[in-house]
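Weekly structure sync - notes
Attendees: PM, LS, DV (DV joined late)
Agenda: review two folding runs queued last week.

Item 1: First target. Sequence and structure tokens pasted below for the record.
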Amino acid sequence: MPTPEVFGWDIGGAHVKACRTADGQVLDVAQWACPLWQGLEHLDRVLQAAHARWPQLHSACHAVTMTGEMVDLFAHREDGVQRIAARLALALAPAEPHFFAGDADWCGAGQAAALWEAIASANWLATARHAALRHPGLAGVLVDIGSTTTDLIAFRDGRVLTRSRSDAERLASGELVYQGVVRTPLCALAPRIVWRGRPLNVMNEFFATVADVYRLTGELDPAHDLHASADNAPKDLPATRQRLARMIGLDARDGSAPEWLDFARAWRACQIEEIGGQLQRVLALYGLGSGTRIVSAGCGDFLVPELCTLAGLDQGIAYGKQVAQIAPAADGPALAAWAQVCAPCIAVAALLQREPGRCGS
């Protein structure tokens, strides 16, 4: 009897990431912008797009993880888990999605209410567990830098080391850094910033996002720059410089293009310092030394080489190339790049396929 295809889903508050797999190999990966805080109709729209891309969804097996329950659309996280689970179950019927519940294993939509705490914001655990299982002899740290957050998750001997499970616990330990490379308000990076050799207090207004920094440095792939700018103005370089200038009460015309690039690099240095400091905390917490390998993931993986250098570690392992298993017939490099960005959906699909009998195998 043939094994059904397995689709992996990561339902976030700002994006939905999904993949199609068969026999443990990744065949396709996609990401859609999904401003869930504005209403569940945005999730419905994404699911319709997924159906158009993959007509076989209703007859496949599905593994789901989520962080979208955090958005302020929902009364509380429990409400969010239940409503997202119900929406997925309805959209994918008659297929019954399996929801990743971490240490509580897997469950259907009907059990989501009872297991909501284990389901909520567990995508980082899926990714780290998958990396640990694929490299059982490795002592490592998953460094997944996304659009909004960064996960720093240690593993050794095939298992994830942290006992933290909630976002609150991981915020306390440094394993969750609430900074990414797209949506983070720029004023969150530093209270002061240097302009022309002089430190200035930062304007704590939503004038710019971190995407403006990496758009100016040329490091942010436009395919990952899916949300509107802070002022809803264009994302070209003149408009980007104008948003950065506002952070210190200036206009773009008050500096030259090279000066604004230097200014962007100053913000970049602040983010590297913060994430690097939290990485050092995690390494120390688990006694991980110079032999530790970094497993990089996320659309902000371009920061990882510098983080490795600061931590005194060798260059890391790319999730998309060395953890995800890309089908040989697929467009390998492009698919591996998307697997790198969308790691949690790849991970839940892979973990579900390790469970005999759950997908008809």
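Item 2: Second target, run right after the first with the same settings.
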Amino acid sequence: MDFRFSKEQLKLKQDVNDFIKKEKKRGIYPFADDSGLGYMSKEFTKEMAKKGFIGVAWPKECGGQGLGYVERGIVFEEMFKAGAPIGQHYLSDRQIGPGIIHFGSQFLKDEFLPKMIQGDISFCLLFSEPDAGSDLARCTTTAVEENDCFIINGQKVWTSHAHTTEFGWALVKTDTDPNVSRYNSFSEIIVDMKTPGITIRPIINMIGEHSFNEVFFDNVKVPKKYLVGKLNNGFKQIMKNLDYERSGIDRLMQNLRVKDALINYVKTVEKDGKPLSKDPLIRDTIAQLEIEFQVGKKYIYYVTSLLDKGELQTHEAAIGKVFCTSYEAKLADVASSIMGVNGLLMPKSPKALFNGMVAESYLASPSFTIQGGSVEVLKTIIGKRGLKLAAK
């Protein structure tokens, strides 16, 4: 792969940066300049839509720009660098839209893709359950056919932003025959989150923020036209969807501002009359972090180039996710160690460094290597599908 961007790609990068500078100057959106948290703004998403920055990699006949996932990576790399409030459309752009494009009926394409491109609707992922985290084949939420509907019963957990999104992308069990392989017993269904029978309960994370939720389904009726793809083919479909999730630049960039803060800290804070950056051990540690960051970024762009060619394998996406999220967890640990007690103070504390951003990152870091598939599960995928190692 040629790691240099083309003239067209460099122009796209500049266009994105010009847009970000303009929108920041307006001062009406919550950019995460000193926070490790991502924000949501429907207004900002609508402005992105006007510029054609949503669905960059989608085919033109589906409302997209018809470019590629390398170009999409360029757009979102710059957005993450700026801490832009992209949460409103992020999942739609990353995997829901591609899932509908690949597997959805014409009805679903006509119903949802235009609204996604315009930033009018948002989605949450109804995957994990109390007894089924990274191993989604253990899910037990059922969808039973009844006339022209599915009746859904069960529980999902760790559902990000279920309380703010209009629709959910649900993995449900549609064949309960114990003799049928669990990998052939699931389907994907789009659910209106305002449907009667859905109860959403907040889960407050360690930072004290409400982003996660429990979602309960009690005889929730969903028309069959919202089935995505083929009945009982959902597990195979979702594995394709997860390749989009695991190969994204976000798995490296969501903690970027902590790296910037750390570099600023060691340059400006002194010990014994010298900047911390003069300490050989600290300098070596920071250099190693930068090397790993650059390696991760190059690999992600390599993976997206394979995605553009239709050559991406599941284990290649898994490698990128394992490397990048492990790096993010390491970054949070190193930053908190070097900055000491003040680096562990939360926002609003008068002595907190960088508005408590490092403390937030440290508390959030366990989720980095779990969300989208735990490191342990992904290493199994790499071993079995990539290295062809026999399972015991």
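Discussion on item 2: The two ends are 36 Å apart (CA to CA).
Action: LS to circulate a short write-up before next sync.
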